[in-house]
Design goal:
Chains A, B: It comes from Methylobacterium jeotgali. The structure is a homodimer. By secondary structure, chain A is of the alpha+beta class. The first copy, chain A, has 8 helices and 11 strands. Chains A and B meet through strand 5 and helix 4 of A and strand 5 and helix 4 of B. Chain A binds a DNA duplex through helix 7.
DNA sequence: CGGCTAGTTGACCAGCTTCAAGTATTGTGG
DNA sequence: CCACAATACTTGAAGCTGGTCAACTAGCCG
């Protein structure tokens, strides 16, 4: 049973069993947080990196007048910061969406491990490349895609991310977000998210009930989103033999 | 005369004269590109990192139907990718806005230099932290800020970035973007950028003529943007003495 | 069962886009 | 250095996407 962290990183580089062990040893001890609780708040000194082991979390910022923007979602296996540096003070908050288990990792240990192990270093850089590429897609979504396209793209991306850690298949995945959280994540309002979900349902693209998202027509959904997974850079890994 | 790259990095770590020399030696030979020309196009294999030495460039994506989104602007001293890895194929394009001078750097050389020199490594990680933080602010802008707030924030951020490399002072800076480029950078249309600029001018916040942007009322502009530069992490550097 | 939270829907409104026309500015060849 | 073309900017009118407000319905949990 490999951890989601290792499972994800194996899409970016060839990791041996020993590499996997080294990574998992870093990810201890395990902490927990309840749903809706903050792991780190804006202004806090972080002290460590945060690695999500189980459950969903998010990076968000809150404006003075209450407007809230979820900047990124973090899924099992996700490292919430670039691994090599910690800010002295957080410029955003890190919140648990569901109940989560997470590990706190010191960046100097992470750096030491990467320095000692080229495969692990490669995998971590690939992870940063992916993180960064998803950020870029988000800018495109927010800047140029209509609500339905944006939502469709979001679903396609989430499905692929979850598939990389064995939490989604072709037919769908568990989506623990309520509509107001979806709204904060997509730069829309809850009411409009509702209408847009209804639209996708009416078009026969998806179903969503009791937190279970089912993709009824994957091709039509991808077409609407114009979703092209090249930005996941899954071709980055050389063949893993020997 | 220190290069903008070194000048910027010195805000993130204490670099000696020797460090500066090492960095500048990496940034050779120098290439040029004309305004409006692409340095790299989506799908290209990049071979090297790109470091902007002079002029403005941008990362952008083009959708099938012609919609275009500028994802990031690159100013003198900016590295256009995370320094440790190259994708096999570009998932976006890199275009020159003005005529530019740039250097092509091999990531393995960059990594070797960072590995050999802790100060340089620290500076490069700080640069990534800043790059990433700006991306986050952009998500907040696109998701939750009105056009005038978004534009005001954009101007405040640009002014500070340019100030870090000596290309802006309190009163303003040269802004080589035409309004349709501004629009592509901010997720709006050229017409609305025009109206919003007019609005900021009418409110006495800025002037903009012949590519020269003058900030008439810095405090009012910051207030409108709710611009807080903590996300630049300028406190990250320890005191540079001895 | 009752109270709370989440989801749904309608009516109306605001911000931004689109389309179109006109004005200013810039660049270029004679 | 001017004339003229091309590009950039400005403005108005109308329309669309998404926001706001408000009410109602459906789950969920003690």
């Amino acid at each position: 049973m490999t951890s989601p962290f290792v499972q994800k990183l194996r899409h970016g580089a060839c990791l041996t069993e020993e590499d996997a062990l080294l990574l998992d040893q870093l990810a201890r001890p395990v902490h927990v947080a309840q749903a809706h609780h903050d792991i780190l708040m804006e202004g806090d000194p972080p002290h460590t990196l945060t690695l999500i082991l189980e459950g969903w979390a998010c990076r968000y910022k809150q404006l003075d007048d209450g407007r809230r923007q979820i900047i990124a979602l973090f899924l099992p296996g996700d490292l919430c910061e670039p691994y090599g540096i910690l800010p002295h003070f957080m410029d955003h908050s890190l919140g648990a969406i569901t109940a989560i288990r997470y590990a706190r990792i010191r960046p100097d240990e992470m750096r030491a491990l990467a320095r000692a192990n080229a495969r692990i270093e490669e995998a971590l850089w690939w992870d940063m490349l992916l993180q960064s590429a998803m950020q870029h897609e988000q800018t495109v979504s927010f800047g140029r895609r209509l609500a339905a396209e944006r939502l469709a793209h979001f679903i396609c991306e989430l499905r692929l991310r979850l598939a990389l850690v064995g939490l989604a298949d072709e037919t769908g995945f568990e989506l623990p977000l309520i509509q107001s959280q979806l709204a904060d994540a997509m730069g829309l309002t809850a009411v409009h998210i509702n209408r847009t979900l209804m639209e996708l349902r009416a078009a026969g693209l998806i179903e969503l009930q009791r937190k279970q998202l089912t993709i009824r027509d994957p091709e039509a959904l991808r077409n609407l989103a114009v979703f092209d997974p090249v930005y996941f850079h899954l071709d980055q890994r050389k063949d893993c033999n020997g």
